[in-house]
Amino acid sequence: MTSPYPHLLEPLDLGFTRLKNRVLMGSMHTGLEEERHGFEKLAAFYEERAKGGVGLIVTGGISPNFRGRLSPFGSELSKFWHVNKHRQVTEAVHRHDSKICLQILHAGRYGYHPFSLAPSKIKSPITPFTPSEMSERQIKKTIKHFARAARLAKKAGYDGVEVMGSEGYLINQFVCPRTNKRTDRWGGSFENRARLPLEIIKAIRAEVGDEFILIYRLSMLDLVPEGNQYDEVIALGKAAEAAGVTIINSGIGWHEARVPTIVTSVPRAAFSWITARVRKELSIPIVAVNRINTPEVAEKILAGGEADMVSMARPLLADPDFVNKSANDQADRINTCIACNQACLDHVFENKRASCLVNPRACYETELVVSPVAESRKLAVVGAGPAGLAFSCIAAERGHEVHLFEGSSEIGGQFNYAKQIPGKEEFYETIRYFDKRLQDTGVHLHLNSRQSAASLQQAGFDEVVLATGVLPRQVKLPGIESDKVLGYIDVLRDHKKVGKKVALIGAGGIGFDVAEYLTTEMSPTLVPEDWHEIWGVDKDYEHRGALKPQVPEHSAREVYLLQRKASKIGAGLGKTSGWVHRATLKKKGVNMIPAVTYQRITDEGLEVLVDDKELLLEVDTIVTCAGQLPQRELVEELKQAGVTVHLIGGADVAAELDAKRAIRQGVELGTRI
């Protein structure tokens, strides 16, 4: 049988060892590293990915010493008693013919604690602490600590280590003039700035020997002012290769960069071009990264000679069986990562355990266990939105007879609105995945089938799950009955005509989505060249950090995004993606106004008070995006009839169309019912 993805599934010979395919599970901190008994859970997490076919796994970043920790209680590998807990992870992975490397990461000025160190005493814009400048003695000790961490990793059974030299962490801080203002032998010229990573690589290689994988994460695009030049990137890559590196992994952008690199609005494989360019200069394997979330995209990169391997972190959170499904020609069954960041990176930056919006079992493998039921029951699920879909599939997989009722002609619920928003096209993939899952698990799907309490009772269901979603909150305002006024559903579902001048009442997630929808003619996510221009990514690499002036976008509409709260517009959006949404609308000239008191709607437009001043917004259309209310009218009748009822998703709590919570509730109920 011909392999559906021959390049992706081809083994990679490293000389002293062999990887079974070209898939590298990229580093991602989970939060389990710091939890009590977290390494037992971490072992289960990585084992599920190894069992799913991944060739090489790289762990989340582990510090080589106390000062390099990401947080005050962050993980480090520096003592012999740390080894045994790591051995749980390596033994679990090795049961499935996969290999695993430990990432050694020194946070530098990104450390979220007062003991952080950096090449120069320059505060990071994303942490509240100013680092101390490293002394010569501290630099030499840090090099030894990297080598010690590698030796302990080898003792713990790891197949290798990855040295984190990108994303703006300590090593990257030394290499870049942006953060290295030293005048000694560790600063100034490029040769001096590159001394630290090369000394670390040499020290590790001397400590662990030749037959041990050594990956170096090379920052190929810093995407910050005073970043490195292309010739410096290549020089460091060549020197790292000569010093004993086995594989070069790509690093794209610092955490403080004002260019998005991984959110859903970034085009797929948006940065493989730089990997391809660097690969021509080096002879060791090169790894492509960022927004590679389907086997088709990965195969294209490898077949086109742009890389030797592909790194995927979040896609393997979303579906641990990604590789096996690809090998079995079941790509349409993959639970595709939608790059939302809501349950993974947002959680990590809030010191919570990471998981995945579309796969809540990620990092909860020992707690959300899908086991066969002792007794099958007949269950009704009303509503085929995210919560209803998630519950139905899990419950049917466990052995229940599940009937899923949906009043409209398609599954997906609110996802059918989200998928239309420019930059959120990945939601099509989630709907496709659930469509296949319903078939595979044997859920009885009933479309165009509105239910009443009486119809559900007559059908003799043992229990009823209401996943009926939300209703838009109605705005009470003089003139609200005007023809000028539309709801967000009128715009996104019914595609009613919207004027050239628009006021949006409500600046939550829905308000931002509608603003994006109304101000975008062609989604730049689907046109990578446009996207690079808009965000100032210098593909010619004529500027330091590959950063050039961003191109303003133009909208045919004049849009006002309004909110009652006095806080910053968009303050409640995701921690790692909210700034992207705000920057996008700002580029398009959207007027974002907080602390608004709505007065009335007239023939001339919308009258408001801002800072106690009357203001008339002369608009053609007013769109209400003022939140939602739970849709749960069946609950009382069913309960009065003695029917056991469960509420999940928006029917339980209506909060900004929270798909993360909705899917998680569905899975949690599905695993225990």
Describe this structure in words.
The protein is an alpha/beta fold and 673 residues long. It folds into 3 domains: 338 residues, Alpha-Beta Barrel (TIM Barrel); 138 residues, NAD(P)-binding Rossmann-like Domain (Rossmann fold); 119 residues, 3-Layer(bba) Sandwich (FAD/NAD(P)-binding domain), CATH 3.50.50.60. The chain is 31% helix and 17% strand. It is built from 22 helices and 27 strands. The strands form 7 sheets. It has an 8-stranded parallel beta barrel with strand order 3-4-5-8-9-10-11-12, surrounded by 7 helices. It has a 5-stranded parallel beta sheet with strand order 15-14-13-16-27. A 5-stranded parallel beta sheet has the order 18-25-19-20-21. Strand 10, helix 8 and strand 11 form a beta-alpha-beta unit. Helix 13 runs parallel beside helix 15. The model has no long low-confidence stretch (mean pLDDT 95).
Strand and helix layout:
Layout: E1 12-13, E2 18-19, E3 23-25, H1 38-51, E4 56-62, H2 83-94, E5 99-104, E6 117-118, E7 132-133, H3 136-155, E8 160-165, H4 170-175, H5 190-193, H6 195-208, E9 213-221, H7 230-243, E10 247-252, H8 272-279, E11 286-288, H9 295-303, E12 309-312, H10 314-318, H11 322-327, H12 345-349, E13 378-382, H13 386-398, E14 401-405, H14 415-418, H15 427-441, E15 444-446, H16 453-458, E16 463-466, E17 470-472, E18 485-487, H17 488-492, E19 501-505, H18 509-519, H19 528-535, E20 558-562, H20 578-587, E21 591-593, E22 596-602, E23 605-610, E24 613-617, E25 621-624, E26 628-630, H21 635-640, E27 644-647, H22 659-672
Family: In the N-terminal section; belongs to the NADH:flavin oxidoreductase/NADH oxidase family.
Cofactor: FMN; [4Fe-4S] cluster
Keywords: Flavoprotein, FMN, Iron, Iron-sulfur, Metal-binding, Oxidoreductase
